[in-house]
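Late entry, evening session. Most of the bench is empty. Finally got around to the prediction I had been postponing all week. Sequence below, unchanged from the version circulated by S.P.
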Amino acid sequence: MIIYCHSLLDNALRDKLAETLSQHVINYRTEDTSEEEARANFAQADYILGNPPGGWFSNAPENLKFWQLDSAGFDQYASIPLRDNVKVANMGDWFARPCAETIVGGVLALYRGLDTLTLLKQKSEWVGSKLRTDLKLLYMQNTIVLGAGTIGQAVNAILKGLGCATHMMARTSPDADLHSREELLEALPHADLVINTLPGTATHFANAEFFTKMKKGSVYASVGRGSTTDENALLEVLNSGKLDGAVLDVTETEPLPADSPLWKLDNVILTQHTGGGHRNEHMGKVDLFLNNILAVENHSSPANEVNLLKGY
């Protein structure tokens, strides 16, 4: 069995892979690996860990059995024609909780003025009581979570724990109480907070029509994929003063261009696609990969299996 590891791993994690898979060949990509060498290793692989360039799959490995993505999102691979017997899994479960904590943390920072206070600290400027009347409580807010996948479920659980009234929007999930765009548009005027966790297949789901329906003084947050938000429409509604603000972990273009107006808006918090990050994220990739190799070798389904064409 030949394994190609496109993820950049430290020595400890390589040792763990080597110890567990001691009977097999593991080819690693490092910062010094040439593209030619990496592609040659990729072409021989039975198992892949990581996110190689999509163009490489125009000549997908003939013996490929399983591909473990090292991300939750994978819309960049939607058009890749893999054989039916090739299984693919993402990191949705592993990244769900950190993504949820980041986006809810960003919302709390916006509600409680923590972003403003951080900037004041840098200037050694005391404002104190003048800020108090601008602060909001997340407690008992009416919230809508777009998407009922692992991230959406984690966001929903945290919001419930903070005392929010929660609603979830998803076409087929039994956990959702909103199942169509029409139902969502009827609910938006009553929502204090909307958090978008949708996959990249929902291009510009949050568009001008969507923002027009949102409640005055509400907040929009996104931790799904940047392509699901029409940023021009979002900027227009933010500049109009209708929304109290936005929290964005993802943007349409990343890195966000230096000339983007989003950088200049005081009521926008940008977390720079760090939502899934935490100290042990790479360890989780390796553990899941090893468990999924065992599952596939035993003719079982891997954890977090996804369909590239469907987007989930």
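Two things to note before I forget:
Residues 217 and 241 are 8 Å apart (CA to CA).
The chain has a mean pLDDT of 96.
Will write this up properly tomorrow.
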